[in-house]
Specification:
2 domains; four-stranded antiparallel β-sheet; about 30% helix; elongated
């Protein structure tokens, strides 16, 4: 089994003159629950569609679980996919969805699918169009999990759900991960959902990867510094705000800060993600003395 769920090198997808994804170089470890976050239009869906073989790259390369996306039946069987709006076939019943899954997927787990449907209280003869948004999302997740993939890719599957349905979906997802040892890539613009479910994070902004790493490492290595205007700062600058007398920086830096004129504040994951979304280019900072 591959130790890398997804690897991209210089990956890009262009539509006309516009790149929906550009110069994406990324390595996502297998065996993790990976959150993919960014503003609308950042390239999240494009990256996931490239990963499942629904799109072909304009530039660069991408591999999933060591193989080219959708390059063979065996490669297709390794990856489960739940697209945006958790699509189901309105005219098919729940039972017909399960039959279709069994016909299309060689490793299909009928017992698992039927057990999940029963636990969710779904009737096998109920048409998909009669299901609530949360029930359709759960049916789509059932189809993805019962395929028995090594990697499950979910593209904002809970975006249209109410808070209760969203929580139930994510709880079911985490149970499936624990039970079946899935690798997961979950795209969402709701940072709170990713914080509850994921242990690895990728931030996409303006069609480029801005940040990737272990969730705990990301939170522990970013701080907010407030102090005298233009006093200089350690580490990598993420964002800066200034008044006439004070500067406030978000920086990536995990060492102790010796200068007592700085106030150091901790950041939530949402604070960090939002900082990368609003990141702007500034002149290189002056060096700041730090404790050794």
């Amino acid at each position: 089994m591959s130790t890398v769920a997804l690897r991209a090198d210089g990956l890009g997808k262009r539509y006309g003159k516009r790149f929906a994804l550009e110069d994406c170089t990324l390595e996502v470890p297998a065996g993790r629950v990976v959150g993919l976050v960014g503003p609308n239009g950042a390239g999240k869906s494009t990256l996931l569609n490239l990963a499942v073989g629904m799109l072909a790259p304009t530039t660069g390369t991408i591999s999933v679980l060591g193989g080219e996306p959708a390059s063979s039946p065996a490669q297709l069987a390794k990856v489960g996919y739940v697209a945006q709006d958790t699509p189901t076939y309105a005219h098919l019943t729940v039972g017909e969805h399960l039959e279709l899954g069994a016909r299309l997927n060689p490793a299909w787990d009928t017992e698992l699918a039927e057990r999940r449907v029963a636990r969710l209280g779904l009737s096998l003869d109920q048409k998909a169009r009669k299901l609530s948004g949360g029930q359709r999302a759960q049916l789509a997740l059932t189809l993805g999990v019962a395929k028995r993939p090594e990697l499950l890719i979910l593209d904002e599957p809970v975006a249209s759900l109410d808070p209760l349905a969203r929580r139930e979906f994510l709880q079911d997802l985490m149970e499936a991960v624990a039970e079946h040892e899935l690798s997961v890539i979950l795209s969402s613009h709701l940072v709170s959902d990713l914080e509850r479910t994921c242990d690895y994070l990728v931030v996409l902004v303006d069609s480029r990867v801005r940040l990737a790493g272990d969730l705990e490492d990301i939170v522990s290595s970013h701080v907010r510094l407030s102090g005298p205007r233009d006093a200089g700062h350690p580490g990598e600058l993420v964002t800066a705000r200034h008044t006439d007398v004070q500067s406030t920086y978000v920086v990536r830096y995990s060492g102790p800060i010796a200068d007592p004129s700085w106030t150091v504040g901790q950041l939530s994951l949402e604070d960090i993600v939002l900082a990368y979304m609003e990141r702007r280019t500034e002149p290189a900072p002056r060096a700041l003395e730090v404790a050794r």
